[in-house]
Amino acid sequence: MSYVERERRGEGWLLFSAVVLITGGVMRVIDALWAFDKDDEVGERLQVLLWEDNLAAYGWLWLIVGVLLIVAGFGVMTGSQVARWFGIVMASLAAISAMLWIYAFPIWSLLGVLIAVMVIYALTTYGGRDTVSGSA
Q1: Secondary structure class of 4 (helix, strand, coil)
Q2: How does residue 135 score in pLDDT terms, banded at 50, 70 and 90?
Q3: Residue 2 banded pLDDT, cuts 50, 70, 90
Q4: Closest CA to 94 of 22, 10, 42
């Protein structure tokens, strides 16, 4: 007797979202450590939207967002609806925080926003209640 294994609709997109959230969170934590280290070395050449030359403020923002992104990514892996909505909120915050550096790094900022939008798409489209593709 063989059982037919049914794959959850959009499972690949959900895994993509979880991996991107975790990876983005780790990268934000690394960015925070960099910001804390280089805070005293920033000159007048830095042009950003908020906190002109205060990298420590960005460091704290990135550290908080990074940790929350990691938590959201692991939550999305569990399939929880609360984690799904938390992932949507955190991907939105990641997109907004990426836009803060649009003047200094325009391509990377827009790429960060694009990836966050892909995560939001995946979580809103495929992260709902369990639906199995095909009929029984």
Answers
A1: coil
A2: very low
A3: low
A4: 22
Q: How far apart are CA 18 and CA 10, in angstroms?
A: 13
What is residue 47's DSSP assignment? -
User: For a pLDDT cut of 70, what percent of the chain falls above it?
Assistant: 76
> Which token pair is 74?
């692991």
* Cβ pair 75, 86 in contact under 8 A: yes
SS3 state of residue 104:
coil
CB 13 within 8 A of CB 122: yes
> What contacts 40, CB < 8 A, 6 or more positions away?
none
Of 71, 57, 55, 67, the residue nearest 29 (C-alpha): 67
